Q: What sequence folds into this?
């Protein structure tokens, strides 16, 4: 009986806290929450890749770390690149890596221990580098936080206020100024789904049309040339890798 | 969905709405996943039985052996969970969950009907292919960590096969994306509205051809016979599954059946009209009877029948896979790779060029027999959502203004008065003109840049 | 749990990128297995990508990199795939010829 009662109390407490979190000023910022989930997973498993000496486990940790990194990319509003990361990096490159691991995972090479001296030196240099980089990252106080959400809300409020004034002036919907409506539409889509139009723009930029900028100096070239170079590069790599890795017939094989 | 729920909650409780929506959707998808596996395992026994001229299960749970998979499940759960001595304990334990999670996560972006999708992503089909490709990790790690030669061989074969088949599969999936001009699966499905001749498989001869390439690659990528080299029982005992038993084994099994269902559903959405039935009863009614289109209940009903359509088409795809499995002999490993690199990839690439040619020249084909709305008028999900949100904001503003005007009235009457005032305004015609104006702007933007540059 | 109500800024993303970068660099320096070194390279490239996307994100700065950041990240991903393919081919070749995957034993490759 007591247990049931305490269970009820705790469940009520949970719901109440949830409500408090929602109602009070310190409401959970969902973006922050998901950023920390993905970031801590990515960093934790990156550390595990470093610490582990078992090569297959390293590969597994790398998968988790890179997938979480794609989550971090999603939280920065880059849906296309995040998905690309999942498809090519995690689904392609790491499969290739694991393939290599399994082809070479002989008894002696699964756990190659690092020498203690290497560890000390690596941690010393790495720790210094990390301290330096993190310090630089937090150098600019305007980078510590962002007022993006408030800014967006304020803009939305301003535009709705403008529309309210127009409506109060006796116009009906068809007479509202199209610019304000367009502004409202842009804000609504940004609030609801981030930047979905970026996908089409990336595609256009790859074939040399920049739809995202009116800057004349960018010109029409966009990323056509790099795209072509990368395409040729990939073909060369494909042929080269196949040539390098193909099974060489040794003389001894022929004799046998 | 979260917005709808939050309208029922007191203000300030919106996070709860998101939580409830997330949990509800997760539960729904898990049920489709688990129930699908149960039903398909039963169906597999019956189909294989009939193909081999026997009855299959007949006793468990009545005349047709309905409860056979449930009995199987209970048996599996009660089995001892073994782990070989040479196994890598961490990876051995975690591998089934990895396969299961990848297969499950791909369901996130799969639309079951017009707008009935857990995560309406603008890059849905791309995301789906990416996540589905992660399932192979579970298999590879399982194969490696079992510490058995059979498992390792199975895993190596699986890795080679999946990496190879992702290439033609990707090309096949790009083809409907080219025709639709969008990676949003809801948009691709909606563009095939109308009579069955509007399905993308009837877009031109090349899509008819590439559909079969897709079917082949889909069977291969979910590792089913005749491409099930990774678990070829006559050579490798059971491949990567050799050392698994009990619940972990059943997790792999559920992942396999989930992926089978998933690739069939993707094929049905991309090529076979998705939630649009062969004869468009509901969409005809919605287009021609205005009061039906206005009732949310009818729209919901139409969506529900759309859901049944998707489930039916996907199930037919799964049953076709079973048919193939019990009809064809298993291929050799070199034949599998040959099929991919020498036949599927060139064929898919050829069809790709053909479709680009067909789209750019605008030649007529079966799609033009009974054309529904032109493709370019079906906008992407985010544009539709944007319009809905603008609509909602404007209605809110109007309601507030109307309420302010009737403020002197008694407090009790206020909502009713507001509603009356709202109805009294000539909302209908103005509404549509605004919509039409928005439409033109959006269409121009869409033509200019497919998805971008709406300024 | 007060930090959960604060919106994260550019610095947090940069810190994640820096951490992955350093992990990758130390991984490259200390691992003896060729494939472990490759994994370090992947981590480094990922850290760089997170930085690019953070600077490209309109959430944090008004004058962001915009689409250019996304394109750079895409090219990094594509080139990483190419790099992994070639490096793997080299590693397999090394393994075939020397029957080891330990880079410390690769000193025979000196001319």
A:
């Amino acid at each position: 009986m007591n247990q049931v009662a305490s269970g009820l109390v705790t469940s009520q407490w949970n719901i109440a806290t949830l409500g408090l979190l929602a109602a009070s000023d310190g409401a959970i910022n969902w973006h922050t929450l998901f950023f920390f989930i993905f970031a801590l997973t990515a960093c934790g498993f990156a550390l595990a890749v470093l610490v582990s000496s078992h090569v297959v486990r390293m590969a597994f940790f790398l998968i988790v770390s890179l997938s979480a990194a794609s989550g971090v990319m999603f939280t920065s509003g880059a849906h296309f690149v995040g998905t690309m990361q999942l498809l090519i990096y995690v689904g392609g490159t790491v499969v290739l890596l694991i393939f290599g691991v399994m082809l070479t995972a002989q008894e002696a090479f699964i756990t190659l221990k690092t020498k203690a001296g290497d560890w000390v030196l690596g941690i010393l240099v790495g720790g210094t580098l990390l301290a330096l980089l993190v310090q630089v990252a937090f150098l600019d106080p305007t980078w510590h936080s962002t007022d993006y959400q408030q800014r967006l809300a304020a803009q939305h409020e301003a535009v709705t206020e403008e529309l309210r004034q127009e409506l109060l002036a006796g116009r009906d919907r068809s007479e509202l100024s199209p610019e304000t409506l367009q502004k409202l539409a842009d804000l609504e889509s940004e609030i609801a789904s981030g930047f979905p139009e970026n996908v089409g723009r990336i595609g256009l930029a790859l074939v040399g049309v920049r739809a995202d900028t009116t800057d004349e100096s960018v010109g029409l070239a966009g990323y056509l040339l790099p795209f072509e170079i990368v395409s040729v590069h990939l073909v060369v790599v494909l042929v080269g890798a196949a040539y390098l890795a193909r099974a060489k017939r040794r003389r001894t094989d022929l004799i046998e | 969905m979260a917005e709808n729920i939050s309208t029922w909650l007191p203000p300030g409780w919106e996070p709860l709405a998101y939580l409830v929506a997330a949990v509800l959707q997760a539960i729904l998808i898990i049920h489709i996943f688990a129930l699908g596996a149960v039903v398909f395992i039963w169906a597999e026994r019956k189909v294989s039985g009939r193909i081999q001229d026997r009855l299959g299960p007949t006793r468990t749970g009545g005349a047709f052996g309905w409860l056979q998979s449930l009995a199987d499940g209970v048996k599996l759960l009660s089995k001892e969970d073994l782990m070989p001595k040479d196994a890598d304990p961490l990876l051995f334990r975690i591998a089934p969950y990895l396969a299961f999670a990848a297969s499950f996560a791909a369901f996130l972006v799969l639309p079951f009907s017009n707008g009935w999708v857990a995560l309406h992503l603008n890059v849905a089909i791309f995301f789906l292919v990416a996540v589905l490709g992660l399932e192979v990790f579970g298999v590879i790690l399982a194969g490696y960590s079992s510490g058995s030669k059979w498992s390792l061989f199975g895993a190596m074969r699986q890795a080679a096969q999946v990496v190879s088949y992702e290439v033609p599969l990707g090309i096949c999936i790009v083809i409907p994306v080219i025709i639709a001009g969008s990676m949003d699966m809801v948009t691709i499905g909606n563009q095939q509205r109308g009579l069955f001749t509007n399905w993308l498989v009837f877009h031109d001869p090349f899509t008819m051809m590439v559909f079969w390439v897709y079917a082949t690659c889909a069977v291969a990528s979910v590792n089913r016979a005749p491409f099930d080299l990774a678990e070829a029982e006559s050579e490798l005992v059971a491949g990567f599954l050799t050392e698994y038993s009990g619940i972990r084994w059943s997790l792999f099994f559920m992942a396999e059946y989930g992926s089978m269902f998933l690739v069939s559903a993707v094929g049905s959405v991309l090529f076979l009209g998705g939630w649009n039935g062969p004869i468009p009863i509901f969409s005809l009614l919605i287009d021609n009877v205005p009061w039906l289109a206005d009732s949310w209940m009818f729209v919901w009903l139409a969506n529900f029948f759309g859901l049944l359509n998707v489930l039916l088409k996907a199930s037919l795809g799964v049953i076709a896979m079973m048919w193939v499995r019990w009809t064809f002999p298993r291929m050799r490993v070199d034949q599998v790779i040959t099929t991919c690199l020498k036949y599927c990839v060139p064929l898919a690439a050829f069809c790709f060029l053909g479709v680009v040619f067909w789209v750019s020249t605008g030649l007529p084909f079966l799609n033009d027999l009974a054309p529904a709305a032109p493709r370019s008028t079906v906008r992407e999900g985010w544009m539709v959502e944007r319009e809905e949100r603008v609509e909602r904001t404007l209605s809110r503003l109007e309601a507030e203004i109307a309420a302010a005007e009737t403020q002197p009235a008694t407090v009790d009457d206020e909502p009713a008065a507001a509603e009356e005032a709202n109805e009294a305004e000539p909302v209908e015609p103005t509404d549509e003109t605004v919509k039409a104006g928005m439409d033109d702007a959006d269409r121009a933007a869409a033509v200019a840049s497919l998805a971008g540059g709406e300024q | 749990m007060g930090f959960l109500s604060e919106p994260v800024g550019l610095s947090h993303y940069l810190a994640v990128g820096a951490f992955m970068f350093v992990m990758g660099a130390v991984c490259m320096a200390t691992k003896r297995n060729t494939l472990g070194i490759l994994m370090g390279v992947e981590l480094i490239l990922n850290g760089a990508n997170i930085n690019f996307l953070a600077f490209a994100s309109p959430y944090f700065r008004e004058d962001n990199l915009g689409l250019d950041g996304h394109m750079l990240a895409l090219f990094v991903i594509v080139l990483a795939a190419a790099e992994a393919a070639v490096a793997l081919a080299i590693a397999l070749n090394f393994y075939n010829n020397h029957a080891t995957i330990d880079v410390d034993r690769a000193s025979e490759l000196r001319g």
